[in-house]
Amino acid sequence: MFIYSIFGMSFFAYVRKAAGVTEIFNFETFPNSLIILFQVCTTAGWSGVLQALTNDQPPDCDPTLNTPSHRGDCGGMAIA
């Protein structure tokens, strides 16, 4: 789970908070990544997490938002 937490942080750290991605359940920090991966592994609300991570088109996200990610606050359908 440690490796997947790091992958999640690199791909989904700046995803807009929606559905299953909240202030606590997100990929912004390593501990939060472990928490959200534990949630997904226990299948508790994984569909909400997947919905938030696959928002890759406006109006669900803003690809022009100034973040270190090249996708703004969008997720990635292919990566999720």
Report mean pLDDT, rounded to a whole number: 85
Record field, number of beta strands: 0
Total count of domains: 1
The first-to-last residue Cα distance is: 16 Å
Major pleated sheet: none
Task: Indicate the percent of residues in helices.
Answer: 25-40%
Give the uncertain stretches in residue-range form: none
The secondary-structure class comes to mainly alpha
How much strand? under 5%
Tally of individual helices: 3
The geometry reads as: globular
The string of secondary-structure elements, in order, is: HHH
Radius of gyration: 11 Å
GO molecular function: voltage-gated sodium channel activity
Subcellular location: Membrane
GO cellular component, one term: voltage-gated sodium channel complex
Keywords: Membrane, Transmembrane, Transmembrane helix
Structure at a glance:
By secondary structure, this protein is mainly α. Helix content is 39%, strand content 0%. The chain has one domain.
